[in-house]
Each structure stands twice: as C-alpha cells, then as structure tokens.
Amino acid sequence: MSAQERKRRERFIHFLQAAIFVIVFGLWELGARYGAIDTFFFSQPSTFLARAWQWLAIPGTQLGGRSIYQHLSVTLSEMLGSFVLGVAFGITLGLMLGRSDFWARVFNPYIQVLNALPRLVLAPIFVLMFGIDERSKIALGFTMVFFIVFFNAYHGVRQVDRNIINNARMLGAGERELARHVLIPSALTWILSSLHTSVGFALVGAVVGEYLAAAQGIGWVISQAQGNFDSAGVYAGMLVLCVVVIIVEMGVTWLERRLVRWAPQADELFAG
Amino acid sequence: MSRSSGGPAVEFDAVSLSFGAYVAIHDVSFSIPQGQFVALVGPTGSGKTSILNLVAGLAQPAAGAVRTSGDSVNGVNRSAAYMFQQDALLPWKTALENVVLGPLLRGAARPEAAREAARWLDLVGLRGLEHRYPIQLSGGQRKRVAMAQALINRLPLLLMDEPFSALDVQTRALMENELLELWQNSSATVLFVTHDLEEAIALSDRVILFSAGPGTRIKSDYPVHLPRPRNVSEARFMPGFEDLYRQIWSDLKQEVMTSYERSRAKA
C-alpha cells in the first residue's frame, strides 16, 4: 500500500468514525423528538449537550455550590491518589514476591481470595473508616489498581529471560543492580501495558465512591441528577466523564510510547 | 588483566554435574594454560554448555572441583566474560547502554565507560548504530553488540557458547576473523563451544572432544598446530588441516551416532 493510499484509507476511517457518531446521536435526537424514545429515561442529545455546555462554558454555573471544574478536580485528584498509591504498592509487593518463591507461595491464597472479592463491597467499609471525603474514594480505587499492577509486576519479574539475568550477573550485577537493570525494566513493560486498565479502574473507584457517598465530585453530580429524576444531568455527567477519559487515555498512550521505545510496537487497537 | 594467581587458566578436577537423577557430566578432568584458545566440540546434548556454566559459576559441580587461575569457582566467576548462545542483550537498553553496562557495574565512571563502549562498538563495526535498541538491529549486529559487551571488561577468561551459529556464512567468517584479531591483541584464555568442526579447528589451539551424553566424558584432546595469525576462511587450505579434520571427525562421528541412537530410542 502506498503512502498516499494509506493516508486516504486513514481519512476514510476517520470519516466513518464521525459518521457513526452523527448517525447514532441524530437518530437518538429524532427518536426523542418524535416520541419513539422516552426522554424520561434516555433524555435527548440536544438537551444534555446543552446542559454539559452550560456547565463547562457558562461562568458562574454552580452544582451544589461548586463549579463543574471544582467537581472534576476533586474526582481527578482522587483518581490520581488511588493510582499513585496502587502503582507504588503494587510494584513494590510485585517485585518482592516475584523475587521470592517462598513468600509468593505463602501469600498466594490470600492474594487470590482478595483479588476474587468484588471490590465494591468494600466501599461501605471505607466510608465508615475514612468518612465521605476523598480518602474513602482513594481507598476504593487503590484496591482495584493495586491488584492489576501487582499481578503485572509479579509476572514481569517472573518472566524475565534466564539468559538476560545470567548475562547481567556475568557482567557484574549484584542483587540490587539486577533489580535496577533487569527486573524493574522488565516488570515496567508489563505494568505499562496494564496502565490503560489501571487508570480506568482508578477512575471507576473515584466515581463509584462518590456516587455511593460524597458531597462533591462528578460521581456526586450524577447521583444528584439521578435523585432529581434529571436524566439530562446524568447524561451530561457521563459526557463530561467521557471527555476526561479520552484525555487521560491520550496521556497514557503518550507515556507508553515514551517509556517503551525499545519494544516492538504492539497493535494498539483495543489494547488494554 | 589479572594473572596474579598461579595455576592454569581453567582446571577441571574429576568434575561431575547432575540435574536430579540425570548425570550430565561424569568425572571430567582437563587443564587449560593461560592464553590458550580452546574449542569444545561434541554432539548435541553432550554438556558443552554445562562446562561453560561451571566455569562461569552459574552451575555448581556435584563432585570434583573447578578452578580458574588456581582459585575455586564459588558463585559467579568475576574473572570470566560469557557470550551466550541465545540473545542475552538487555532489550530495554540501546547498543551503547548494553556495552557500557559491564564497566559501570564494575565501578567505572560513566564518561570513561561511555567512551570505551563507543570505541568497542566501533571496533566490532557498529559505528553509527550506538543508539539503536536490539530490536532495531539485525541478528548479526546483535551478536556484534554481545561480543563488544563480553570483551569490553577485558577479563582473563572468555566463554563463548556457539556465538556465531545463528549467522549466515559470510557474516560468520567476518566475525570469526574479528574475534581472532581481538583475541591476539589480548592475553585472554578462550573456551569456545561449537559443533562445527571446521570452525573449531580454524579458530583454536586445541580441540577437546566430548562424548555423547548423558554422563559426558572427554573423548579425545587434539592440539592444533596451524600457524597464526590465521584467516578463518583460508585455514582449511593450510597443510595439516585436512588430516586433523578427518581424525577428529572419525571420533566425533561415533559420538554423533551414539547420541542419535539414544535420542531415537527415547522417542
């Protein structure tokens, strides 16, 4: 395929992507307008787009005494907090157990059980423990991010090629240098490939936590809208979340490209 | 280069090695003087790699003693460089970072180590490719990086496990000549595992032939009296090459047949 053909094909793909958006939202709008779709449940694109626009672009719009940006910054800081903590603990414990067969076997059943436990059932306990502020959301997100990063770090350490370890040893690496030059870089590739998933879970932890019990944040905005039978508010909240997720995803992809330039470029489609 | 302690460069004293019930090497003794280039030859599964691993300290003998320069090998052998059969470059480091690693781990300052690494990459013909990652290099280029990585530490002992077996014939001859040149300018002792008899004779001062496994022993031990410096691709036309080749091949053929029969009986 020539460069020009590829470009044309690329443009066609973008065109189809836009077309799908227009068709789905167009049909939704028309259906809502002519009574085929019940706006009580499904709202109407023109209504919730206008609502989101009002939140985002008209200064002075308040939701429970705060602007949408203040709510967003609360949600994002919870997400960031649980992400950073989850990654830090996940990597540390993953590397430790990855290096020690003995302790890996000791902890194995507990890790399996905790991982199998649906993390959402912990949310009420975190609310009791930490109250309804950010900390309970960070705790909830942490329990989700931690396990993903932990398992990836663990496998990353486990799956290092023996030859590479032996080579580093022969070149003069002790235990600490081995971790720095071989084990952590190897684990990092696994961790980075799971970054999309773990960032997503950090956001889930924040939003669901807010939805269950909070006084601010996007999850709270959605929950308030729901409580008022305001489906336009629910969809507008979802829309704002979607935009945030897309921006975060772009950041993660950028980070991944920067950090694993040495690896063969994986098929990015549906990577996760 | 440390040649301080006396004794032969490598000494095996009644060494046996087993993996569980499987006896890989049985009662092997030999001695290699400093500076010799020795080829280790034998059929597949004859434990040649195990011999290198024992010298490297990556494997421990079940019985007997392995000594290098008079010292018992205990843990990773700090006086040996090892060029592995499979790719063992660190894939997340560039060619330069791979080569610089050895000196850095042995306490060199970064600027000097980087200069030295660049010089070695130049020596093995990789100038301009210093900042490529292994994935961006060809198989031959990766072997060159591995060679620079192994040689830069200037260790008295160089272990090579079929380093060129995956290369095409031309690249291989080139690299063999480069290796000989680099070796002649050093005083290193080389243990070179191969199952290519021609390569073994063309490169080495001595060919040690191992019997078919399990329970590998030394089958025979031939000196190679071809003049140096040698050109590997012309060595086979030197007088004496043919006779030596035929002699070693008749020994090797028996072992190869034995090995083949055993593996077929198992299958």
Task: Give the helix/strand layout.
The complex is a heterodimer of chains A (272) and B (267).
Chain A (H helix, E strand, L loop, with lengths): L2 H31 L5 H4 L2 H13 L10 H32 L1 H16 L6 H8 L3 H25 L3 H10 L3 H19 L1 H18 L5 H10 L3 H29 L13
Helix pairs in contact in A: 3-12, 4-5, 4-7, 4-10, 4-11, 6-7, 7-9, 7-10, 8-9, 10-11, 10-12, 11-12
Chain B lengths: L9 E10 L2 E11 L4 E5 L6 H9 L6 E6 L2 E2 L7 E4 L11 H11 L4 H14 L15 H13 L5 E5 L7 H16 L4 E5 L3 H7 L2 E5 L7 E6 L8 H4 L5 H26 L1
Parallel strand pairs in B: 3-8, 3-9, 6-7, 7-8
Antiparallel strand pairs in B: 1-2, 1-4, 4-5, 9-10
String of helices and strands of chain B: EEEHEEEHHHEHEHEEHH
| CATH domain fold name of the largest domain in chain B | Rossmann fold
Low-confidence stretches of chain A: none
The gyration radius over C-alpha positions of chain A equals 23 Å
Fraction in helix of chain A: over 70%
Read across the widest sheet of chain B, the strand sequence of neighbours is: 6-7-8-3-9-10
| Overall shape of chain A | globular
Distance between the termini of chain A: 28 Å
Number of strand segments of chain A? 0
How many domains make up the 3D coordinates of chain A? Answer: 1
CATH architecture of the largest domain in chain B: 3-Layer(aba) Sandwich
Could you say what the CATH architecture of chain A is?
Orthogonal Bundle
Distance linking N and C termini of chain B: 48 Å
Q: List the uncertain runs of chain B.
A: none
Shape of chain B: globular
CATH topology of chain A: MetI-like fold
CATH top-level class of the largest domain in chain B: Alpha Beta
Largest sheet of chain B: 6 strands, mixed
How many individual helices of chain A?
A: 12
Oligomer: heterodimer
* Strand residue content of chain B: 15-25%
What can you tell me about this protein's structure?
The complex is a heterodimer of chains A (272) and B (267). With 272 residues, chain A is mostly helical. Chain A has one domain: MetI-like fold. Chain A contains twelve helices and no strands. Chain A has helices at residues 3-33, 39-42, 45-57, 68-99, 101-116, 123-130, 134-158, 162-171, 175-193, 195-212, 218-227, 231-259. Chain B is an alpha/beta fold and 267 residues long. Chain B has two domains: 10-79 and 157-266, P-loop containing nucleotide triphosphate hydrolases (Rossmann fold); 89-154, no CATH class. Chain B is built from eight helices and ten strands. In chain B, the strands form two sheets. Chain B has a six-stranded mixed beta sheet, sandwiched between helices. Chain B has a four-stranded antiparallel beta sheet with strand order 2-1-4-5, with helices on one face. In chain B, strand 9 and strand 10 (218-223) form a beta hairpin. Chain B is globular. Chain B starts with 9 loop residues before the first strand and ends with a helix. At the A-B interface, helix 8 and helix 9 of A face strand 6 and helix 2 of B.
